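Onboarding guide, step 5: your first structure request.
Type a short instruction followed by the sequence, for example:

Predict the 3D structure of this protein.
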Amino acid sequence: MADITMCKGNRCPGRVLCVRYTARPCEYRQSYFVDSPIKNGHCESFWANVDLTVLKAATDFALAQRPTTTIEVNAAPRLGDSRDSDS
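The system replies with structure tokens like these:
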């Protein structure tokens, strides 16, 4: 039960990382922002539900572990190419 003003997260890109969106609301009475707290692309009411520095480090680590794809292009001779003939 959240004893906080919660947010409905409408059009908010950070909602899944915010306590005001992810907390379990009180089943009897819960307050929500009337208007979106986002002003000029910034939310002064954002309350991280994870340690964002740890999340960034984990993301950076995961991206670094992805195998890089190397594509080798072998120029196959075309049919009828003079290099194909033994003459």
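Each response can be followed by summary notes, for example: The radius of gyration is 27 Å.
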